[in-house]
Amino acid sequence: MLKRIIVLGLSLCAAASGFPVQATDQGARxxxxxxxxxxxxxxxxxxxxVRSSEVVPGITMPDGRPLTLVRQFDGNGLVLRLPEAVxxxxxxxxxxxxVADSSVISAQADKRMYPTLVPTDPGYLPGNVLPxxxxxxxxxxxxxxxxxxxxxTAWDRETGSPxxxxxxxxxxxxxxxxxxxxxxxxxxxxxxxxxTANDGDARDPDPTDPGDATVADECEPGMxxxxxxxxxxxxxxxxxxxxxxxxxxxxxDFAASLLPVRVLGKCGGSVSDVADALRWAAGLxxxxxxxxxxxxxxxxxxxxxxxxxxxEEQNAINAAVGTGAVIIVSAGNEDVDVxxxxxxxxxxxxxxxxxxxxxxxxPYTNSGEEVDLSAPGGLISNSDPNDPDGLxxxxxxxxxxxxxxxxxxxxxxxxxxxxxxxSAVASLMLAVNSSLSSGQVRDILRQTTRAFPDAxxxxxxxxxxxxxxxxxxxxxxxxxxxLGSSVNVSGGGGSxxxxxxxxxxxxxxxxxxxxxxxxxxxxxxMHVFPPAx
Length: 533
Fold this sequence. Notes:
The chain is an alpha/beta fold. The protein folds into 3 domains: 32-110, Alpha-Beta Plaits, CATH 3.30.70; 115-477, Rossmann fold, CATH 3.40.50; 484-524, no CATH class. Helix content is 24%, strand content 21%. α8 runs parallel beside α9 and α10 (415-432) runs parallel beside α12. The chain is globular and about 65 Å long.
């Protein structure tokens, strides 16, 4: 699908539709207390002596109240604390006023980001092991031909490489009997706010998920309390659960390592932390944090926040993609236009929507022209949280903090898990052909999908089709069979690919045509692709 450049007013998400079913990764959209500011060189020198929690001189609220420093951010950036929490719209209005200062280059709200999962029934968990018939036949999303991703034939081509690294920006990780600790790399906890972190400190090299349980009204007035989601564990289980052993379920990639990068805690997380974590996961330096010795080629972001893609989000995405990383993000679960949710509406990402067991559009998934492809997200009925049409994942039975003996499984639904499937398949593609560029991985994923089985989804709202792992690995082995030959024109913040089929050849007239189209494409920062096969 083509990624449009969109100019939108920021808005909170619409409520989910009235279907008698739920995605189990819907979350509230909260207010913010922080602003990301970038200063000119003179301004940076002016505040160099200011320490965390101190008032920043010369920069105030429109009503004259002071702002305090949270931390330095990416060179000439600052994260500033507002006197009180405000709505996203109010924070953006404050940022717009701050830009009027001659020392300020840019300002934006440090909006909150959230895991795209809150359990349907936070008090419900199944037994430690689901019945054997569910364990053996329950992962329909992997092997069923209608709504699944055709992993059984794909595994005949590739099961993964130990050199592969999948970074996961999420709530962190919890030990589980069906995860091999040797495949869990030393990640990092990027949460700077101690209350959000919920582990007694701010940033540190321990990405363990301490739980994100809340009590009523803790995140915002009127919001009920929830048990811990263990969202990071659940998403990771789709990708790297141990296979061919006696426990629970199988992961898609049998050999790659997981790099857990913690950015979400109680009541979500901040864009500034996500931006730093994204750069770090891709191998770029972040001030105050040791360099990542195991950069990831695939970065999974099963999270979202309301509003258009902010400049700082896009900057971090562009920087990570510049290292060769493929960034795969969730469309979200509010049943709204994906143009209203980031990072799904950012450029240079692969946005994944959700489908059901029969291949139809999941009623909760966000949709629209920014969706690149879809993958199974499942469905959980209100009357049966263990609905067999949900996806089978790993979780922990602890309701607040993790139970050391609480390794278990459950059914779940949402585009977080659609995204994880696409990320794991991308990792297998790189195991097949490590020379693939990030653009080729993105394009092959999009071009090898299979058609939607009914009219509930089409290429205008659900992407190019349903993820097909077998076709994607075939395309990875021979990219020209899918993408043809290409001429790439890079410039500014993006790139443009003009793709010709192998039969087109490169006669002078055709080459001239490609150059002319390339110029137009570059100006619009678009991608032109051949028809899906």
